[in-house]
Amino acid sequence: MAEKRTSKAQAVRDYLKDNPRAKNKAVAGALGKNNIKVTPEYVQTIRRKRKKKKVGTKTEGETKIKASKAKYPRHSIEKALRIPRAILEQNAGKECSEKESAKFVGVGYAGPYQLEISSALKYGLLERPSAKRLKITPLAKKILRPQNAEEEVKGLRESVLKAPDISDVYNHYRGENLPDTKFFRNALLDTFNIPKEKISEFISIFIETLEKAQLLEKRADKYRVLDYLKESELGADNLERLKKSGKPVSIGADDTCFVVMPFAEPHGSYYSKIYEPAIRKAGLKPVRADSEIFGAGKVMDQIWSGINAAKVLVAELTTKNPNVFYELGLAHTLRKPVVLVSSNEDDVPFDLHHIRVIYYDVNDPFWGDKLLEKVAENILSAIKNPEEAIFKREDERT
Fold first, then answer.
1. In this structure, are strands 96-97 and 338-342 parallel, antiparallel, or unpaired?
2. Are 307 and 330 in contact (CB under 8 A)?
3. Domain 250-397 listed as CATH 3.40.50.360
4. Domain 77-144 has what CATH class?
């Protein structure tokens, strides 16, 4: 008898596995045609046991995977535009149900389509006026029906800044080259908490989306992330995000940031206009090896003391100034994190290409404001993640 009951239970479980939404009476009727007699009440009992088992047998690994669920859109922005485009073209952009939108696209409603809806929502291309209903946003219309040559690109860039994780990674690397693949993957895992099993997918979506928004330039074997933000769009948001995310930033009242830079103009004036306010914005005291520093004494003794005492450094590499590189060598010997800055990639030695470098363009009317904000952000980032701003020995790069 026990064997017969087990056989019935397994038959019910097998049927429910293939037909999870079947009603209890329908299950009993279908099994009865195969000479397996069960009542709707018996089916309900097996159904309840299955639910309890699923909840109760979740492994620790499964729990962790759920906790680390990806926040970023699971499609590139080009693919995420498919649904709003279909609603615009086949429903005149009017509000519709999710099922209606699937018909406009010409696909099934369940499974992958729901993920596509989620991606469009995360880019700010769709919104939900109510449950199970969709409406395209003004941002989507700007992209799909631009009124001038610039509007589409502007809309795409706004979508990048709305997308979870993608916006964080963009802001982190804007104005810089993306790191080599190994170090980029490590940063995505450790700094941005992208699930390990999703990193390859994220990189593909990130690259495709930024290329579509004209925010990436391919230079030799590197990708340069372009900083398109204007003065009115710059602010303290990234600084606050850096302070709150990951490891806490510990900055004392007397902590200093030592600036290594040429004194000749025009770069010499950048100290008071850009680097000094950027350092203060990050919460540190700016120090430079000129007449204001330390009083009398040997110049190199002063420089050594300044570098040794600094919590972090900023180095302006433009013009390949030999004194700058000498002082940078001292900082790297002391394993100090250094924020590297240059207006010319050719002025950055090959051996430093694996460290983050901020590149600025003096032809950009907002370059000074962008550089000030970016230096302040990278100072905090270097304190939180010094491995990104410390010279790596050969054995650390493999």
1. unpaired
2. yes
3. yes
4. mainly alpha
* In the chain, where the domains are located: 2-57, 77-144, 151-225, 250-397
Q: Three-class SS of residue 226?
A: coil
The pLDDT tens digits of the residues spanning 236-274 come to 466 666 555 556 677 888 899 999 999 888 988 999 999
Output the pLDDT for position 66. Answer: 42
pLDDT of res. 394: 52
The angle that helices 199-212 and 166-173 make with each other, rounded to 10 degrees, is 70
Positions of the chain with pLDDT lower than 50, given as ranges: 1-5, 58-68, 231-232, 236, 291, 294, 398
Cα distance from N-terminal residue to C-terminal residue, the chain: 65
Alpha helix (H) residue ranges in the chain: 2-18, 24-32, 40-56, 60-67, 77-80, 82-90, 98-105, 112-122, 138-144, 151-162, 166-173, 181-190, 199-212, 237-244, 270, 276-281, 299-309, 322-333, 367-384, 394-397
Tokens standing for residue 127: 């919104």
